[in-house]
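Notes from the 1:1 (GR / supervisor)

We went over the backlog. Supervisor wanted to see one worked example end to end before approving the batch request, so GR pasted a single chain during the call. The sequence is below; no edits were made to it. Supervisor asked that the structure be written out right there so they could see what the output format looks like.
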Amino acid sequence: MGLVLGLVGWLLSGPSGLAVAVIAMAVTIVLVPKVPVDLAMRVIGARPVHPEEAPGLYTILIELSEAAGLKAAPILYRVRGGRILAVAVGDSSRSALALSDGMTVVMDEREMRGVLAHEIAHIAAEDTTLMNLAAALGRVIHTLAVFGLIAAVLIVLLTPEPVIPWVVGLIALAPWAATLLHLALMRRREFAADADAVRLTGDAVGLARALVKLETLPTGGLARLIGGGPGRQRRGLGFLRTHPSTKARIERLVGPISDRVRPMRLH
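Structure output shown during the call:
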């Protein structure tokens, strides 16, 4: 995305435009905001859960957090309602993890451990901050591209100066390139979080079973602030998805879907 930003700057104004693009990228990296944990939880309507209310879940969270090297275990939050939702925000020093009532009802302990490990993997990798950075760079690229296209139109209308068509075309394509790179990054982080979750639990089948269950439920799918809604909303062309297909994720975890995963019954 940085290269796309630099290219747009160069096309707009040569070396000086490239310098502006580099400065804009540096400022974005420095100023990109981290999502405040409490604010993120309020946005989704979650309330904190005291350890005495869910001792089993907190035991798993503490165990997985220590294995992942977090400085503190995430604060557990509850989202009321039957929708299937898992949300993780924060970093190794301060984080939160929200589970919906629907998630806690449909998952058995083994599957829930896989889901929690996946979310903790996102926290350990600071994926929320990473995705905020990617989104911010995308907005900068979009803004520069729009500025460039407006400038090209004004040049054509108000001056005799020629406009090079391929330059205008590249500038127009830059926001699309940034979007596709952002989506590719999101899919890559999902694969990485799956792999890290298995390292934390030593149980690839448990996470695979959770993925199958989430895919087959009418409202199935993991949803989090760093990307995407329910799994069925993410279907379509692979390069336009926020998440990889469930089939691809399961095959990376356990190989072709086998009897260890398929015969699972919902409860």
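Supervisor's comment: The beta strands are 47-48, 75-79, 86-90, 95-100.
Batch request approved.
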